[in-house]
Request: fold
Amino acid sequence: MATVIRTPALGQAIANVRVLEWVVREGQKVRIGDPLLEVDTDKMAMEIPSEAQGVLLRILSPEGTEAPEGTPLAIIGDAEEDISELLATLESD
Reply:
């Protein structure tokens, strides 16, 4: 089952982050805890680790995107998994 990776809560003083760089590219395998992407806040740059294991199926927030807490960043799942329904749900939110 696919997992939506979202911008984590980084504290009250940090409202938004900006996606700097994706460490993992679409189609690559990732394990829990592996660095997934780098973000920048008004205070520091940091890596966001993967919360799921599988294949990075879709990047939802490309480099340069502002991403408030809870913003969908990516979808991780099985290599051949159909995520069309999940994408439709995310678009309707």
